[in-house]
Each structure stands twice: as C-alpha cells, then as structure tokens.
Design goal:
Order of helices and strands: HHEHEHEEHEEEHEE
Structural class: alpha/beta
Distance between the termini: 39 Å
CATH architecture: 3-Layer(aba) Sandwich
CATH class: Alpha Beta
Helix content: 25-40%
Number of helices: 6
Length: 201
C-alpha cells in the first residue's frame, strides 16, 4: 500500500466509511479544548470526509466550517450532511485558499500522507493561519509506516518522530500546547494541539 492509493481508495469506500464511522464523538474533549484556544469560529477541516461527526459538531457550536477533501465522493456526503457549510474539492498538499482560519484541523487525515508530504504541510498550515490560530492534528506515537483498513480496504499511514513534529511546528510559527500519544480518553489517538504565534524571521 502506497500513500498515492489513499485518494482513489476513499473515492471507492466513501459511503461504507460513512456508515461505519464511529459517531460517539469521542473526539469532543479535544475539539472543545481547541475551540477554547481559538480566537474565533472560522474552521478549516482538512480531510473532512463525510462531515460527521466532527464538522457537524463544530457547525452545531456556531462554527463556520470549510471542509476540504481530495475524494469527491466524500464531499458529496459532506454536502448532504452539512448543506450550509462550504466544501472544497482539493488536495490538502499545497492548498492555497488565500484566506486564514481560526482553527485548522487535520484529524485522521494528514497521517495518510508520506513523511515528506507531511513535512510540507506545515507551510500550508501557516499560510492559512492568523495570529492565535489553533492547529490540531493526529499522528502516530512514533516515526514509522503502518497499514490500516477502511471498509475492508487497506490504507497507508505514516508518522514522523514527535521531536520532528515539534521542530516543524516551531519553524513554521506554531507553539505546542499539548501532545498526548495514544490518548486513552480518545480511543488511542495521538493528538497534537498548537497555536500560531507568527512566522519566524
């Protein structure tokens, strides 16, 4: 399994993924924490998928959500589930929306990219950040590659070393707020939370 297979895989399994996606909102404590730090309610959801439960929860919290996904079949579902929110069919890699957001999410999405592509994402995050923008993403607990399954299809995962993520955030202007590897309160997800301080000179 290669990272290049991710988009076509999610194109095929979008509805199966949406049916099987855990909707207990185990992510809620992290989402609430991120919102508490965010300076506003304008949200960029990278790899938004069908929009439930995360984008729906944020919309219910009076957020203005822009969902971005490279799989068009996922965006069909996103639009069905959140007709009032904006959906953008685009690859998160090299994204250039020409605007900034108060909260940038890459929940269970950036870790499908190769290590090099993940490194490149931090410039993309910074390009869409304003002072005090909050960044939240998930990774693996340690550097390495792995495979998982989505609706019976094999998918690629990769992670950098936590210290490398810290260095990339610092270089791109983000201060770490928290990192909890394999958080037992979040179904074992390794979660990062950071806030933009501005570009370094």
């Amino acid at each position: 399994m290669r990272p290049d297979d991710i988009i076509p895989t999610y194109e095929r399994v979008a509805r199966g993924f949406a049916r099987s996606r855990d909707r207990t909102l185990f992510e809620r404590p992290w989402l609430d924490r991120a919102l508490n730090y965010a300076p506003g309610r304008k949200v960029l959801d990278l790899g938004c998928g069908p929009g439930k439960p995360i984008a729906s929860y944020l919309a219910d919290r009076r957020c203005d959500v822009t969902g971005v996904d490279a799989a068009g079949s996922m965006l069909v579902l996103f639009r069905e589930n959140l007709p009032r929110e904006r959906a953008v069919h685009a690859d998160m890699r090299g994204l250039e929306l020409g605007e900034t957001f108060d909260l940038i999410l890459a929940w269970n999405s950036m870790f499908h990219l190769s290590a090099d592509d993940q490194r490149g994402m931090f410039g993309t995050f910074a390009a869409h950040a304003n002072p005090r923008t909050v960044l939240m993403f998930t990774s693996g607990p340690n550097a390495g590659e792995a495979t998982g399954t989505v609706d019976g299809a094999t998918v690629y995962h990769a992670s950098l070393d936590p210290e490398e993520y810290r260095g990339l955030m610092a270089e791109s202007g983000f201060n770490e707020i928290a990192f909890v590897p394999e958080d037992p309160q979040c179904q074992g997800h390794s979660v990062w939370l950071a806030q933009y301080r501005g570009a370094t000179v």
